[in-house]
C-alpha cells in the first residue's frame, strides 16, 4: 500500500486523464436518478397554520405539535377525506407538524396532486383544533364538560342571595347589621376572586380559542426530492464514487515506482535510468475489437497515476544516458558476451528503450589491438518480450545473462519477482536493471530535414517461447 499523501495535483491528473470515464459514469448516474424519479412519482406538500392564543411555553408548543401529527388526528382526518387509495397508515407517513414562532403550529400534508395536498392540510388543521378543544374540555364525558359551567351558575346564584341578605339586613342601624353586611361583601369578593382564578387555570379557556389561519396555499412546485434533484444527485454520486475508487486504487497500488524499489524486487543492480521521447498517445498499447476500442475511448488503456513526462532536453543528452548504461554494463561483465534484454510484453515504453539500448550497444566499437588488454567491448543484446502474468524466458544457449528493462510503476512486486525467477529458471543471471522514463518531445520540425533522434529498429527481436534461442 502506498503511503504517499493524496495531493491536489494527483486529483487534477486523474481528472485530466480520466475525464471521459468520469463523464460517462456521471451520465450513468443521471440516468439512474431519472429512473428513480419515474418509479417514485412527484409529490406536493401544502401547509396550514394554527394560532394558539395566550401564553405558551416551548415544551407545551412541542406537545401540541406532537398531537397534531398523532394517529388520533390523522385517523379522524382520513375518515373525513374518504380516500380509498390511501390508508390511514400511509397517511401518517405523509403528515408532519412543527412549532413555529409566535405560538403557531404549522401542519403539513403531502399528496400526489396539489389539490389533494391542499385539502389534506386543511382537514388536518380542522381536526387538530377540534381534537385539542375536545381534550381541553374534559374528554367525551358530558357531565365532566358541564362541571365548570354549573359551578359558575351556582356562584352567580350565591351572589344574588348575598345581595338579598344584605338588603334585608337593617341598613346601619345596629352594630350587628353593619357587621353582617361587611361579612356578606367579603364573601362576595372572595367568590369573585375564586372564579377569576378558576378561569385563568382552566386550559380550555385558551385552547378553545385556537384559530386556523386561513386555508392552506396550493403548492406550485414538487416536494423534494424533485426529478431534477434526483438526476443531479445521481450524477454527483457516481462521479464522487468514481473519484474515490480511483484514489483508493492508487492507495493500495503495490507497483514499485522508484529505481531502488524496482532493483530490490528483481534482486539486481541498477545500471541507470534512460529517457524515451514520446508524443501524446504514442505510448498507448495496441489492440483490436470492441473491448480495445472502448478502453481507448474511455482512456483506460493508459495509467493515470504515472507522473507527467518531463520536457525533452535534446538528442545528445538522451544518448549520453544510453551510453552510460552500456559503459556500466561493459564494466560489470568480465568478458564480452551475448545477453537477453527482457522486456514485459505490455510495456511499450520499455520496448522502445530496449530498442534504443540495442542500437547504442551496436555502435560501440569492438576492442582493437591498440587498446590495452583490459578494454572490453559492449555485449551483444537481443530483445525478448515476456508476459508478466506467466513469464517464460528462453533457455540458455548462445546468451548467458539477462538485462531487464522496464518502466516505473508498470509491474507489481510479485510480477517482478516472477520475471527474475523465470530468468533464473532458464539459466540466465540477471546482470542489471534499466528503468525507462518518458519525456515529452518538442513540436514537429517544419524543415525537410529528418530528426536526428529517430529510434532504430529492434535488433534481433525474439519471442517469449521456451527452448533454445
UniProtKB/TrEMBL annotation:
Residues 442-469 are annotated as: Disordered. It is a multi-pass membrane protein. Residues 6-70 form the Polysaccharide chain length determinant N-terminal domain. The chain crosses the membrane at residues 21-40, 230-249. InterPro entries: Bact_polysacc_biosynth/exp, LPS_length_determ_N. Pfam families: Wzz. The keyword Protein biosynthesis does not apply. Keywords: Cell membrane, Membrane, Transmembrane, Transmembrane helix. It is found in: Cell membrane. It comes from the Bacteria. GO terms for cellular component: plasma membrane. Coiled coil: none annotated. Belongs to the CpsC/CapA family. This is Polysaccharide biosynthesis protein. It comes from Streptomyces alboniger. The lineage of its organism: Bacteria, Bacillati, Actinomycetota, Actinomycetes, Kitasatosporales.
